[in-house]
Fold this protein.
Amino acid sequence: MSTEKIYYTTPGMSEDDARTLVGLLQDRLHAMNDLHLTLKHVHWNVVGPHFIAVHEMIDPHVEEVRGYADDLAERIATLGGSPKGTPGSIVSERQWDEYSLRRDVTQAHLGALDVVYHGVLTSHREAIETAGDLDPVTEDMLIGQVDKLELFHWFVRAHLENAGGHLSTEGATSETEAASQAGNA
Ligand SMILES: [Fe+2]
């Protein structure tokens, strides 16, 4: 729950519920701001024979994720909160580590992104669970975002899958481990 004072919220919503939703939405806003910056970083740092496919696959999704950040921030404001979008607030409040790869082959970045999306999607689904008890409008927004985030996750995974349906990142527990397994597959 956000500790910030809320002076008004949307009609029919209690102040406590609004504060819980603002805290949950702020965490997802940090995640989406971090994600669209990370995706651009990947867009600039991929190398290898599949450069252009991966480089160009990322940009339309960056626009989608930037739109999700905008929607989350405006939902926070609608509920009476004050959205934080500064770089310092992302870094100091996020519960995950900075993306760890620099220049690397496309398969390595895609392997690392598989782990990134695993984290993002798990947290978005947890947020849906909480929002579902408090506010169907916020829940609906998050469900729409998960739909497109999962679709892009499949785009990533389709590059990591073999003809037998196995992912090269199977069993990996970190970005570097997944990158190494995908790069060596
Ligand atoms: Fe570009």
User: Anything to note?
Assistant: The pocket of fe (ii) ion is lined by residues 43 (CB under 6 Å). The first strand starts at residue 46 and ends at 47.
